[in-house]
Specification:
The protein is mainly β. It folds into six domains: 95 residues, no CATH class; 87 residues, Immunoglobulins (Immunoglobulin-like); 71 residues, Sandwich (Immunoglobulin-like), CATH 2.60.40; 47 residues, no CATH class; 63 residues, no CATH class; 85 residues, Immunoglobulin-like. It has two helices and 44 strands. The strands form twelve sheets. Strands 10, 12, 14, 15, 17, 18 and 19 form a seven-stranded mixed sheet that branches. The protein has a five-stranded antiparallel sheet with strand order 5-6-2-8-9, with no helix packed on it. It has a five-stranded mixed sheet with strand order 38-44-43-39-40, with no helix packed on it. A hairpin with a 5-residue loop joins β39 and β40. It is elongated and about 175 Å long. 18% of the residues are buried.
Length: 485
């Protein structure tokens, strides 16, 4: 009996013999019985403690007359605050006696319903409410899809309210309850939160007496309702509308999906009797700007008139031609003297990039060639090139050597040392007066002192043929003679 019982029992009287009902409940409910909704069936003083329960349970017996309970009729006994158990005896000594015991032996259920409907739109509130809360009940609200994580409770609140619901709040809600120390049969209710559409639009506003165009950018909406702010409306997806007066208007678009969920976008627009547009354009060096078919390149002010059937427009343009260039200076002027030079770029644009990949205003070059630099600022650029021509290298050779004097002067036939490192290809052959080759080398650093197979030959004239090639210039053929003293 502790956790079982009924809140309402209906019985039928089949005969006119004595009809007794016996009611058993806890003390806090004994004054709350009704018969067919009317109170007074039993007063508090009619109840007595059930022996052996030490005041936990109380009982009362009630004789119902045929006036209160006619034969063949049905009555309903209820308790407005808690559960009870009821026994019935209908009959008397010597007659057929009917008896019965009436009580709900199942758990007391939690009955929950959605006040906000089982399907709601995103942004609305979910409202769930227990419809049969007993006195001193408390509840745990959880969402099955989120591992039964508790949303609310345990506590006495008999409703769950989730404002501004999202699709993450969709799912099956589990409501578990207890009253006193008794568990209640749980209930579940499934709620679907429907994603609302995303509404947006763009407008192309002309002016008075000219159609204004509206582009619907909504997603998820299957129907549209436009309000143009002047008392007119439209259900077209992408309508046009003509305003009869200039001024400011608030345009509203309401989009709905198939479930009736909606979203709203509203923007102010200005409708004027005419349009004047002012614009400033800066053009990079060497480029032009197309202004309604005219290619403009000179700094100045320009305008263009558009006649658009009652809404004339004038476009005013201020064009600025950016003037900038880049120059390149070589230091020193003579590259060939030291085979190196610095190239310095100067420009009103602050950023530089060379064809070598360097990004500094100046670079050091060590070889002939064409070098380009580009100066930039934002989207503009100017370029220039600088050419360093290959150097003419001169080869000086002695016409006499004196190895026989053995004085350390003019002992060898060789090239001057300052050009040896500049030579990329080399070949030398020396011949005696009979045409026999007595010396050969591909080394530009060669040295020859007329030693012929271990025997020095002096006071003799020899001839030579030499091929010399410097970087980026053609190979030279040099022939001549050398006297050995």
């Amino acid at each position: 009996m502790k956790c079982r019982g009924s809140r309402s029992v209906s019985v039928t009287r089949s005969q006119g013999d004595n009809y007794y009902i016996t009611l058993v409940t806890t003390q806090n409910h004994i004054g709350n019985f009704t018969l067919n909704g009317a109170s007074g069936i039993k007063n508090t003083s009619d109840f007595h403690s059930v022996p052996g329960t030490y005041g936990a349970y109380f009982f009362a017996r009630k004789l119902l007359s045929t006036t209160q309970f006619p034969v063949g009729s049905t009555v309903r006994i209820e308790n407005t605050s808690g559960d009870f158990n009821m026994g019935v005896i209908n009959g008397g000594p010597g007659n057929t006696c009917k008896f019965g015991y009436f009580s709900d032996f199942s758990e007391y259920p939690v009955l929950c319903e959605s006040i906000s409907n089982d399907s709601i739109c995103e942004g609305d509130s979910i409202i769930l409410e227990i419809t049969n809360p007993p006195t001193s009940g408390y509840y745990i609200w959880s969402l099955i899809e989120s591992n039964n994580d508790t949303i609310q409770g345990p506590g006495p609140l008999t409703s769950l309210i989730i404002p501004n619901a999202t699709t993450a709040n969709s799912g099956t809600y589990l409501i578990q309850g207890r009253y006193s120390s008794c568990a209640m049969d749980p209930d579940t209710i499934k709620v679907l939160v429907i994603e609302k559409p995303e509404v947006d639009f763009l407008s192309t506003i002309n002016c008075v007496d000219n159609p204004s165009s509206f582009e619907n950018l909504s997603e998820g909406a299957t129907s549209s309702q436009w309000y143009f702010g002047d008392g007119e409306s439209s259900i077209q997806s992408d309508p046009t509308h003509t305003y009869l007066s200039s001024g400011s208007y608030n345009v509203t678009l309401i989009g709905l999906n198939d479930f009736g969920c909606s979203d709203t976008a509203q923007y102010p627009i200005e409708v004027s009797p005419g349009i004047e547009i002012y614009d400033t354009v800066r053009v990079c060096p060497g480029l032009t700007y197309n202004f309604y078919g005219a290619e403009l390149s000179l700094t100045g002010d320009y305008d263009h008139f558009i006649d658009s059937e009652g809404c004339d427009s004038t476009i005013y343009l201020h064009l600025e031609q950016i003037e900038a260039s880049v120059t390149i200076l070589q230091i020193p002027d003579d590259f060939c003297e030291f085979q190196t030079a610095m190239l310095m770029a100067e420009s009103a644009f602050p950023n530089f990039i060379w064809s070598t990949g360097e990004t500094t205003p100046q670079i050091v070059v060590t070889s002939p060639g064409t070098y380009m630099v580009t100066a930039t600022q934002e989207d503009c650029s100017v370029s220039n090139t600088f050419k360093i021509t290959p150097c003419e290298m001169f080869v000086y050779l002695p016409n006499t050597i004196t190895p026989g004097e053995n004085d350390g002067l003019n002992d060898y036939f060789c090239l001057q040392p300052n050009i040896i490192d500049q030579i990329v290809e080399f070949e030398v052959s020396i011949f005696d007066r009979w045409g026999n080759r007595v010396f050969y080398s591909k080394d530009p650093a060669f040295k020859w002192n007329a030693t012929l197979i271990g025997v020095e030959s002096y006071n003799t004239i020899y001839s030579y043929k030499m091929i010399v090639k410097f970087d980026k210039v053609k190979a030279k053929l040099i022939v001549g003679s050398i006297t050995v003293l």
